[in-house]
TrEMBL record:
Its EC number is 1.-.-.-. InterPro entries: ADH-like_C (IPR013149), ADH_N_2 (IPR041694), ER (IPR020843), GroES-like_sf (IPR011032), MDR_fam (IPR045010), NAD(P)-bd_dom_sf (IPR036291). Signal peptide: none annotated. Residues 14-328 form the Enoyl reductase (ER) domain. It comes from Streptomyces ochraceiscleroticus. This is NADP-dependent oxidoreductase. One of its GO terms (molecular function) is oxidoreductase activity. It comes from the Bacteria. Keywords: Oxidoreductase. PANTHER family: PROSTAGLANDIN REDUCTASE (PTHR43205), PROSTAGLANDIN REDUCTASE 1 (PTHR43205:SF7). It holds the Pfam family ADH_zinc_N.
Length: 332
């Protein structure tokens, strides 16, 4: 089977030359293992961090080894109790066609209950990030006005819709194209949305939120964060989920320059790591899957087909080519 290796640590924007698609033997499962044919794998922004050696909350990818990440697939050989050929599993050995997985780190998923790809998105890690980040870290309360950046992405789209479903007074989103803004307004039910490429975020946010905001869910950092601080009401909360605008930066970015407002506004700003919130998983799955079934919560997915297009899918994600979750699908 073929698998993607990181072969050089990107400086700034990654390029295709930093990666190699290599052939690897398909290992028979040892004791306690299953052999999985991957059907979908995830490309996520945090993987950019794993490509560098900067100290972070996950280990860097090793050079000349297969990259890792969320994946769902079908068990094609099993040497583990409780796992049968034909079972579907969620696991962490993506970026490859075949994975030999320790059954302990695989979770069975039901393709009848929901499409397999949704376990990587709306019902998976990004979904839990949105749910825990908004409801727990940002301490969302009914009546709050919520601003979310990266709003047409996997996490952001769900943040805005959960806020609406939980009684937000106003939900505002920003995204990088007019088509995405249209999705936010017409499909996801945001009250206001703007394309951050059409003008200064600060001005556009002021117009979209004339009465200010109580919560900012940050996926982007930089100018977005600065604009949100400016718009924040007294005792507002900022959940910092991501700062994608600086993942490929080669120099420190200046914004936000107005952090001193934290005093006068007594706002709270807290970082969020999804891994801290798996205790909410059952509640999250129950609540969100019900909204998905009833059609109250919409989600989108952008599929890129073929293992050979995996790196292009990741680069496309950084460029904003996805609406909703970016997923690489592997035809049988
Ligand atoms: P998305 O589906 O949102 O995809 C990334 C999006 O980021 C792109 O579609 C693009 O959309 C946008 N983007 C890229 N560059 C910029 C830029 N310079 N300025 C503004 N937007 C940009 O990814 P996810 O939903 O998976 O992740 C969203 C954020 O959440 C990321 O920051 C990620 O790191 C973070 N995250 C954090 C977790 C945690 O535990 N802390 C867990 C999961 C995700 P556009 O066209 O709008 O520019």
């Amino acid at each position: 089977g073929r698998e993607w290796h990181l072969v050089a640590r990107p400086q700034g924007w990654p390029t295709p030359a930093d990666f190699a698609l290599r052939e690897a033997p398909v290992a028979e499962p040892g004791e306690g293992q299953v052999l999985v044919r991957n059907i979908h794998f995830s490309v996520d922004p945090y993987m950019r961090g794993r490509m560098s050696t900067a100290k972070s909350y996950v280990e860097p990818f090793e050079l000349d080894k297969p990259m890792q990440g969320g994946a769902v697939g079908e068990v094609i050989a099993s040497n583990a109790e409780g796992f049968e050929v034909g079972d579907h599993v969620l696991h962490f050995l993506g970026w490859r066609q075949y994975a030999t997985v320790n059954a302990k780190s695989a979770v069975k998923v039901d393709p009848e209950a929901a499409p397999l790809s949704t376990y990587l998105g709306v019902l998976g890690m990004p979904g839990l990030t949105a749910y825990a980040g908004l409801l727990r870290v940002a301490d969302f309360k009914e009546g709050d006005a919520v601003f979310v950046s990266g709003a047409a992405g996997a996490v952001g789209g769900q943040v805005g819709q959960i806020a609406k479903l939980k009684g937000a007074s106003r939900v505002i989103g920003s995204a990088g194209s007019d088509e995405k803004v249209k999705v936010l307004l017409e499909e996801y039910g945001f009250d206001a949305a703007f394309n951050y490429k059409n003008g200064p975020v600060k001005d556009q946010l002021k117009e979209a939120a004339p009465d200010g905001i109580d919560v900012y869910f940050d996926n982007v950092g930089g100018d977005h964060l600065e604009a949100a601080i400016a718009a924040l009401n007294l005792h507002g909360r900022i959940a910092v989920c991501g700062m994608i605008s600086q993942y490929n930066a080669t120099e420190p970015t200046p914004a936000p320059r107005n952090l001193a407002q934290i005093i006068a506004k007594r706002f709270r700003m807290e970082g969020l790591l999804v891994g801290d919130h798996y205790d909410l998983q059952p509640k999250f799955v129950e609540e969100v899957s019900a909204w998905v079934r009833s059609g109250e919560l919409k989600y989108r997915e952008t599929f890129v087909e073929g293992i050979e297009n995996g790196v292009e899918a990741f680069l496309g994600l950084l460029r904003g080519e996805n609406t909703g979750k970016m997923v690489v699908s592997l035809p049988a």
